[in-house]
Amino acid sequence: MISYSNTCRYYVYQDACNMRYSFDRLGGIVNAHMEGNLLSGDIFIFVNKRKNQCKLLRWSEDGFEIFHKRLVKGTFAVPHNGQIEAYELQLMISGVVLEHYRKKKRFSIKNVV
Predict the structure, then answer these.
(1) Alpha-carbon gap, residue 8 to 84, rounded angstroms
(2) Cβ distance 48 to 19 under 8 Å?
(3) Rounded to two decimals, what is the model's pTM?
């Protein structure tokens, strides 16, 4: 099972993806178009044209993992930026529309430096 964590990064592929693609094809997309490192443990997110299916690809300790979700009704609200946070992925998978969602400002050590 793929868990949501703030320690890894989440990258969304912006084009529609064929959901018949598996490990090798999705890994090829990451290398060719997303410029990501497959072995980093980051999660790469792919959504089909109809936006009713989503695949998450991740390298674990000894191999690749794919999480695949197909909605019976409705669509995923796919973020338009390439990198998202863990909470945004959780909201996307849960069906929350991110354009209407607003996060309150919080302290972050990144903002201090």
Answers:
(1) 10
(2) yes
(3) 0.83
CA distance 101 to 104: 10
Q: Over the stretch 32-47, which tens digit does the pLDDT of each residue have?
A: 998 788 998 899 999 9
Rounded to 5°, the CA angle 50-56-59 comes to: 155
Three-state DSSP string of the chain? CCCCCCCCCEEECCCCCCCCCCHHHHHHHHHHHHCCCHHHCCEEEEECCCCCEEEEEEECCCCEEEEEEECCCCCCCCCCCCEECHHHHHHHHHCCCHHHCCCCCCCCHHHHC
Q: Do residues 11 and 36 make contact, with C-beta atoms less than 8 angstroms apart?
A: yes
pLDDT in tens, 49-106: 999 999 999 998 889 999 999 999 989 888 888 888 888 888 888 887 767 666 677 7
Domain ranges for the chain: 10-112
Other beta carbons within 10 angstroms of residue 92's beta carbon come to 21
Distance of CA 81 to the CA centre of its chain: 11
